[in-house]
Amino acid sequence: VGFHSQSGVPVFIKARAVLLATNTGGWKPSYHQNTPASEGVSIAWNAGCAMRNFEFWKVWNVPVDFAWEGQTGLLPKGARFLNANGEDFMKKYSPKFGAKADPHYNTRGMVHEVRAGNGPIRFDCSQMKPEDVETMRPRAGWMGLNDKKLRELGIDFFGQELEWMPQVRHTYGGIVADLDGSTAIKGLYAAGLARNPDPGVYMGGWATCITATTGYSAGEAAAQFVQGHDAVAFDEAYAASRLEAFTGYLGRDGIAPKDVISDMREVMSAPDIALMKTGKGLSRGLDRVEEIRAEVLPHLGARDPHELAKLFEATSTVLLTELCLNAALMRKESRAGHYREDYPERDNEHWLKWIEQKQVDGKREVHTVPVPLNDYPIKPYRYYMDNFSWPTPPKAV
Length: 397
Known about the structure:
The chain is an alpha+beta fold. 37% of the residues lie in helices and 14% in strands.
């Protein structure tokens, strides 16, 4: 069920199989992140799907004043993150990788430098070869326009040091699905980032590969499922009631959906939640989410169908934030891009497992599933995080 986001006309779709390929969910910061709007998380959750890996979310780093893409291509060509003393500080945290690292680790280094009084952090391209600058300067797409407009304002990304900051982007969590994309709900398949194929650290350049591979396998599986199943009964009264739960907001004055997304972004951007997670910070974030759910969501309004679509995004982002904070609070260790400052070590004995959440009779249920390493033909024997050494965390966190 759904509605047309311009006319508001209700839409009822009868299908024997559904393939959910809605991207992931996020908090709409900068960096053209308007599309991961969390609706897929809400759809799957309300259908009863199990959701996994929401304690992992993507923390990026960006210039303070604008968005820029391509740092993981620039750093190997001589670009550097510098502290206020002009030091390439990531070399002391990882002599092996330096800043040629996953952005979760670079941003963690940024936090430690600022705590030590060595901020702000700047990005410097002065050590790059002129031919590499020429190669890496964007010319097409949004980044080509970005570079053109910035230079018209007197800002040359490659010609001056620019202040950078960490930024929360989107979740790595998604729907629990088999290799063919099938979920626990018969006839419901998941593809792309909706099924959390990312490993919790930055891989880069995977988007087309993930889309093509998971889309092919899930599409083929859904087609095979349809061939073996006749059309099922469609309860129009139930469908209408589900839709009315949202269309009832239409034409009602109230709090704007964008304000809710802004609130959730503020929750997730807190220093002790975004990257240097602590139990205290995560618990405080959950309290704020509950406050928003109880005191703000009942008073939302949508002046037109377009705002009604945004309202669904807003309520979905509240759900997403809650799933993320709950899982991060539960995982009392550090692993991949998940860093608990109050539990800074990896704990394979207790936490070599996935955290799964699902809705049962309107309530959240959570359980863990051991990672089936014995079934893997290639078994992991080393960990990316072991290439880094961090200062001892503060005792009072």
